[in-house]
Amino acid sequence: MNEGTEEDKDIVKVTPEKLSAEEVSQMVVSPCCGAVSLFIGTTRNNFEGKNVLRLEYEAYVPMAEIEIKKICAEIRQKWPSVKHTAVYHRLGLVPVTEASVILAVSSPHRGESLEAVKYSINALKARVPIWKKEIYGEEEYSWKENKECFWVKQDKGSSLKNRQESSTDFSEK
Prior knowledge:
- The protein is an alpha+beta fold.
- It has a single domain (8-152), classed as Molybdopterin biosynthesis MoaE subunit (Aldehyde Oxidoreductase, domain 3, Alpha-Beta Complex).
- The protein is built from four helices and nine strands.
- It has helices at residues 21-27, 61-78, 110-127, 160-166, and strands at 9-15, 35-42, 46-47, 50-59, 84-90, 92-95, 99-107, 130-136, 141-144.
- α2 (61-78) runs antiparallel to α3.
- It is elongated.
- The termini are far apart.
- Pathway: Cofactor biosynthesis; molybdopterin biosynthesis.
- This is Molybdopterin synthase catalytic subunit.
């Protein structure tokens, strides 16, 4: 077998460029793999009865890329047979029907790649500092909170005063 001749790859790209599912899926193809699993997140034209015109994404790119690479490393820990991963996320304006995020994973068998893709999109939404703004008809908009984010899972009843009291004051140092 030639399994060891090709080095594993983790490809991460956070970009304002339009994303291509074909390009991303080809990045993870390997002769030793029988599965390439792909997730494509696209802009839909509605949310909770509102007409969505487009999405706008912002990110702290250096931190986003570091966090995505950590997710790729976690995938390799959980599914050692995974060969290649690719995570592309778009920034800026994303019109309806266009891709905001594309994830691809290759592995010898489908089970590992399917599970790894599901894990990666859930981890990305929970941890990566990328923010989404939905633009509705009449140019009304709403910044969207990822319900999966770890920092959102605080006790909703705690007051700002309690949060301020528990935070460290660095001005005294």
